[in-house]
Amino acid sequence: FRTVEPLEYYRSFLKENCRPDGRELGEFRATTVNIGSITTADGSALVKLGNTTVVCGIKAELAAPAVDSANKGYIVPNVELPSLCSTRFRSGPPGEEAQAASQFIADVIENSQIIAKEDLCIANGKLAWVLYCDIICLDYDGNILDASAFALLAALKNVQLPSVTINEETGLSEVNLKQKNPLIIRKHPVATSFAIFDDTLLIVDPTAEEEDVATGTVTIVTDDEGRLCSVHKPGGSPLTGAKLQDCITRAVTRHKEVKKLIDKVIKSIKPK
């Protein structure tokens, strides 16, 4: 029944206000985060959302700022969905879903002002940091956007950048690896995704199977003050204002849970 008529199979559960994996409609999968697990990166995090597993590694490099924004550094996100994470993806250049996820993460960084790009500038017009944020999916089971945004935020909070000065006599940069500083994280954007069933029912944190049979999806990104940073809705069923408001309210609650989880993990790894 599940294979032949997946939609009917799901409807039989949704009528009873539950889902095939036993969760309620508004219940998230178990969420875990591990920070600083990649020693070769300047900052890293591994996030598990149910079976969906995403790792984010951040590499910092020095570069000259762009001419039109001489006092700003760069943040370059890239989401990879390799063939090892699911049979739905092929090896080779990034597919449509990976490109859409990369664009979503770039929008979240821009709209939420998670980091002020001015903070990445070392010397105006001469030197700035470039943060390459590689987000790689290891196991794909739906809701890649929430997991990617969470992994990025956790990895950024783990970044330690060495102190850099410019020698005025030689004009060359001098890097002091002994003195490292954390990034200034100005906002904590958290994504919350919903799948829409039969144009009316909303379920939170959809699995890959639920995304496949849903009539649409929507992702809400909120920050620390409950402000809306971004709404990502790639087509599908329209949402009424009341439904959207309901999503935003749930997203604000989810933000508090995720923030609490990150703070707890960071506290546990800080040297005593």
Automatic annotation (TrEMBL):
Keyword Transferase: no
Signal peptide (residue range): none
Entry keyword Membrane: no
The organism's place on the tree of life at top rank: Eukaryota
Main localization (coarse): cytoplasm
Biological process, per Gene Ontology: exonucleolytic trimming to generate mature 3'-end of 5.8S rRNA from tricistronic rRNA transcript (SSU-rRNA, 5.8S rRNA, LSU-rRNA); nuclear mRNA surveillance; nuclear polyadenylation-dependent rRNA catabolic process; rRNA catabolic process; TRAMP-dependent tRNA surveillance pathway; U1 snRNA 3'-end processing; U4 snRNA 3'-end processing; U5 snRNA 3'-end processing
Domain Exoribonuclease phosphorolytic: 27-162, 189-252
Pfam families for this protein: RNase_PH, RNase_PH_C
Assigned GO CC terms: cytoplasmic exosome (RNase complex); nuclear exosome (RNase complex); nucleolus
Alphabetized InterPro entries for the sequence: ExoRNase_PH_dom1, ExoRNase_PH_dom2, ExoRNase_PH_dom2_sf, Exosome_comp_Rrp42_subfam, PNPase/RNase_PH_dom_sf, Ribosomal_Su5_D2-typ_SF, Rrp43
Compartments, record wording: Cytoplasm; Nucleus, Nucleolus
GO molecular function annotation: mRNA 3'-UTR AU-rich region binding
Alphabetized UniProt keyword annotations: Acetylation, Cytoplasm, Exosome, Nucleus, RNA-binding, rRNA processing
Family classification: Belongs to the RNase PH family.
The protein, known as: Exosome complex component RRP43
Organism the protein comes from: Pelecanus crispus (Dalmatian pelican)
Lineage per the UniProt record: Eukaryota, Metazoa, Chordata, Craniata, Vertebrata
